[in-house]
C-alpha cells in the first residue's frame, strides 16, 4: 500500500481538520481548543490504524534508506576526526 492509495475523503478530512483548527485557534476558548485537539488526535490515530500497512511500509522504507546513509556518514566522520587527530 502506498500513500497515494489513501482515499481522497481521508485527505480532505485531514485538510479540513487543519483548517478548522487554525480557525479555532483564533476564536475559540481554551476548553474547546483542548477538546478539539483531543478529537483531532483521535481522528489522526484512527487514520493511522486504518492505514497501518501503508504507515509501516513508509517507516520501513525510510529506515532502509536513511539508516545506511546515517551509518556511512558516522563512519566517515570518525575517519575524518581520526585523521585530524593523527595529523596533530
Question: What is this structure, in a nutshell?
Answer:
Helices cover 88% and strands 0% of the residues. By secondary structure, the protein is mostly helical. The radius of gyration is 22 Å and the shape is elongated.
Description:
This protein is mainly alpha-helical. It has two domains: 1-50; 53-88. The protein has helices at 8-27, 30-50, 52-87. Helix 1 (8-27) packs antiparallel against helix 2. It is elongated. The mean pLDDT is 83.
Total beta strand runs: 0
Q: Tell me the strand percentage band.
A: under 5%
The string of secondary-structure elements, in order, is HHH
Q: How many domains would you count in the coordinates?
A: 2
Q: What is the CA–CA distance across the termini? A: 53 Å
List the total number of helices: 3
Radius of gyration: 22 Å
Low-pLDDT segments = none
Give the fraction of residues assigned to helices: over 70%
Task: Outline the fold blueprint.
Layout: H1 8-27, H2 30-50, H3 52-87
Helix pairs in contact: 1-2
Keyword list:
88 residues, 88% helix
